[in-house]
Structure formats: structure tokens, C-alpha cells
Predict the structure.
Amino acid sequence: MTLKIDIDDGAGVPPFEQVRSQISEQARAGVLPVGYRLPTVRGLAESLGLAANTVAKAYRALESDGVIETRGRNGTFVASAGSAAERGAASAARAYAERVRRLGLDEGAAVDAVRDAVRAVYGDQG
């Protein structure tokens, strides 16, 4: 098992987001198992031909999402992404439900809004 990241300069997606999404997808799919040690920021940046700040931004986003964890000088590792993602989704869903209730929407309107947003984000994948 090895980390595989392909940066597409013509994708219209910033390189940091390509790094973030590819690591996240590989962690969630189990290609990168929990505990897998990721390359250093500088090492990955060098291998991809990117600036270190670009990879650092991706790592910060991944850590914020609970996909990876940094253990000081020991390195950066894949965390238990599935459960962290599920907890994050549940928390976001609850915050959304509370917000739309305060706005006066009924349950049907709230669910319709989520469905529309998911379709907009996922397109045909949703």
C-alpha cells in the first residue's frame, strides 16, 4: 500500500484540494489504512512538484476533518476517518436541523433543501 496522488494542472481544482480529496478518498476507501504514516509535508511537496505550503494546507484541512492526525515529531498518520467523518456529518446535520427550525422551515422543506444541496455538490453521484 502506497499513497498515490495525481495532480492535474488543467482540472480547475486547486492543487491543495486535489491533495486533500485524494488522501481523504484513499483513507475512507481503506487504501490507506488507519495508522498509515503519510510522507512529511516537504517530502510530499517535493515528490509532487508543489510548494510545501500547498501540502501543509491540505494536511491542515485533513486534520481538521479528522482524516489524519499529527503526532508531533513522530509524523502524520491516517486516523480512524470513517468514524470521524460520521461524527462530523452527524454534528453538521444537527446544527443544520436546529438552524432551519429557528428559521421556521418545516421538516419537509428542510429535507428538500438538503436533497437539493447534495445534488448540487455530488451531481449524478448523489
User: Anything to note?
Assistant: Residues 99 and 105 are 9 Å apart (CA to CA). The mean pLDDT is 90. The two ends are 29 Å apart (CA to CA). Residues 15-79 form a domain with the Arc Repressor Mutant, subunit A fold (CATH 1.10.10.10).
